[in-house]
Every structure is written in C-alpha cells, then in structure tokens.
Amino acid sequence: MTQTIRKAVIPVAGLGTRFLPATKAVPKEMLTVVDKPVVQYAVEEAQAAGIEHIIFVTGRNKHVIEDHFDHQFELETTLEQRGKTEALAGLRADLPQAGQVSYTRQQQALGLGHAVWCARALIDRSEPFAVLLPDMVMTGDPGCLSQMVAVHEKRGGNIVSVEACAPEEAHKYGIVSMGETHEDGSFEITGMVEKPEKGTAPSNYFMNGRYILDAAIMDLLGRHQTGAGGEIQLTDSMLDLMAQQPFHGVPFEGETYDCGSKLGFLSANIALGLANDTLGPELRAFIKSLDVCE
Ligand code: UTP
Question: If you measure from the C-alpha of residue 79 to the centroid of ligand 1, how many angstroms do you get, rounded to a whole number?
C-alpha cells in the first residue's frame, strides 16, 4: 500500500533576479495574478490534493508571505463592521488552520536543493512529501499535484510532473529521459539533466516544478553537492535517488505559467483574467479594442 502525502514544501527563498526591479522589496511569490499572490495558487493546489501541512522555506525580505497566511484582525473587523460578509468569508476561507503551516529559513539562496534540505527537520523520514515551486502557476482540474497523487497511489515511488516543450527550447529546462510508458500515460524516468547543451536533450519533457519525493532525498541533499550554475540542485540528488528507487513522470494535463519570468507572469494574468467570470468579458472587450489580434 502506498503512503498518503500529507506534507508539502514550498520554497520561497529565491532572489527573483529575473523579475527585477519588481522583486527588490516585494517577494516574487507575492506578485499578483488577477487578485491573488502567485504563492496562493500553489497553496490552494496543495490543499486540493489533500496536503495537511505546508512548510514554507523563506528568506530575508519574505515576511510578508507569513503575514498573508495569517489573520489580519484590523481588516477583518472593518469588513465585519461594514457588512462585507462575502469578502470576509473569502479572506478566512483561504487561511491554513492553526498548526497547518510551518516556516523555516534558508539564510542564503544556495539553490533549490538546498532550500528543500532546509525543511529536513520538519519532514518525517518514513513519509514521502511534495515539493511545489510556487512561481509555476498551474491551471487544471484536477490540479497538477492531485494528478500526481493519483499516480502515486497506484505506483508509489517518486513522482515528477513533466510537460512537453519545443525541442529547440529544451536547453532552458531540466529535462528527463523516458523509459517504459505505462497505460495511464505516466512513464518511467531513467535520467534527468539540468539545462542540457543545445541538441543533446534526451527528450522534450521538462520538469515543471511539482515533485513527490521519498524523504531519503534529504540525506542526499545534505551532501551539499553543487551542480549547474554553482547551485545545490534538486536534480542532482534526484538522480542519485534514482539509483535506489523508481521515478515516474506524469505529463501534466493543464496549463503552466512561469510567473518567475516577466512574459509568463503577463501571460498568466491575461489567461486567468479572461477565465475569470467577473472580469473576463470586459477584459476580452478591452483586448479586442487594442486591435492587436489578426
Ligand atoms: P528559481 O529557480 O525561479 O530561482 O526558484 P530564483 O532565484 O527565485 O529566481 P531568479 O532565477 O533569480 O529570477 C524556484 C523556486 O525556488 C525558490 C524560489 O523562491 C522559487 O520559489 N528558491 C530558489 C529558494 O527558495 N531558494 C533558492 O536558493 C533558490
């Protein structure tokens, strides 16, 4: 029998250099897509997948993320006094309950692998856990992590969400090598490489920022081996874990927006704005009025 995935690590300690100057004082995870900060999409996706406890790995200048997932008594009292019950209910519904969220700190942004390792004391060694990169905003029903949990329940092992890219774009991503394909569309992962040299990628499936990992990854990350870009990469330790345990790729059915990049962020705002029941019709009319479409 496979184990339930109860905990998720959401690393939010990166510097967000691709989004400067916006991210000089504001964490990139708090930039807003339509009416919610980017990080909230990841939290809601995790909750929908049955995650009971979220562990944020934060850094300096990120305290506003903690405030976002807490009560704001002055605001709530004012909304109550003004009878704005819908807004108030929305605020409260989004909050993790007491004891369902933990924060730990990555003092230096040494890479994603290092950020995940910073959560080691909060992860039970007998339980697999999820990792969600919050700047990857995903739309899909069921959500990406729910799709992965369903495969994990059937197959166990480690699960990596993947997505196809144009072959000429593969050098920009972490790419997986494909083994046997299963009847549910998932496949065995036999290798992975961060940002392969142009023309050398083993497939065009890239890892899009969602993982279910055996807790043994923490010991491998603890070696602090640096990889691509001089950073402690999650990919390197996953490769080592692959020598001991199976990894399965799950092609994500839905859309992904890389909100750590300016273009991905703008695309997310347009796509999710258009899909929004209240804003969509007027936004569509506005975009049409720009006369930009052929
Ligand atoms: P990115 O790879 O997008 O890195 O991180 P970044 O450093 O934040 O952004 P750029 O490239 O400089 O623009 C993916 C996720 O991992 C977190 C980030 O906060 C982001 O949510 N991260 C990354 C950490 O928590 N610590 C790190 O050392 C690196």
Answer: 35
